[in-house]
Give the backbone structure.
Amino acid sequence: MNRHIQQKIGFILLGLTALMVVMPILFVVGHIAASGARAITEEFITGMPRNGMKEGGILPAIVGTLVLTLGTALVAIPLGVGGAIYLSEYARDTWLTRTVRLAIINLAGIPSVVYGLFGLGMFVLFLRFGTSILAGCLTLAIMTLPVIVSAAEEALRAVPVEFRTVIFSLGGTRWQSIRYIVLPQALPGIITGVILGLLRAAGETAPILFTVAAFYLPRLPRSIFDETMALPYHLYVISTHVPGMPMHIQYGTALVLLVLVLSMNLLASLIRSYYRKRRQW
């Protein structure tokens, strides 16, 4: 068979495979949007829940999700990127570092409910933070750390060695090479890892179920030691534990969560594209 024909057949098969992956996602998103659109009103977005969450809005759940995501980012990003810098730039290739990398990969595959139970035992009970935003953020941060560390380390190691060699030849230190050369060049890949980690945290239910989520709390949190509602747990509750809950409210909540996650992804992607354009290789 002519190689050009083989190439065309390969392109067609790959295109069909991509279509098979994308179409179910588009169908699900379209179904959620069509079913939940009539629930999206100003009161639904900005109001407090009432009448057993069958009326009113979901503002506490929206604010709670944003607060938990922000708190997770504040804890996980410095620790994750710092750990990746150490493993990539400072640590020697020994059995210990290889063991650490293997442990990080394994931690990324642990079910989220296990992290939730760990957060319950460590932060809620042992450290006596109680069911609070602080306990939830720390639990979500631990869950997202493996993803951020792995992606950030790969991005740092992908920067050509010649970039470091040049600054060393000019009398620069290792930290100066990291600060002014390696980090800016690796930033798009680091942002990708951060996106993956935070999007997982924003959509998780099990970890916050044990550490922070409130079943019904028609007010906004006042401190990091307060409980809070969150969209993933709120959606779970109204779908399984509230009899007679209108379907359009369930789909409306799912649509808000979907838009929130996609908006975060879009914002991070724009930032990543900006730094990718500035990359010099």
Q: What stands out?
A: Residues 3-36 form the longest helix (34 residues). The mean pLDDT is 87. The first strand starts at residue 49 and ends at 50. The CA atoms of residues 113 and 206 lie 5 Å apart.
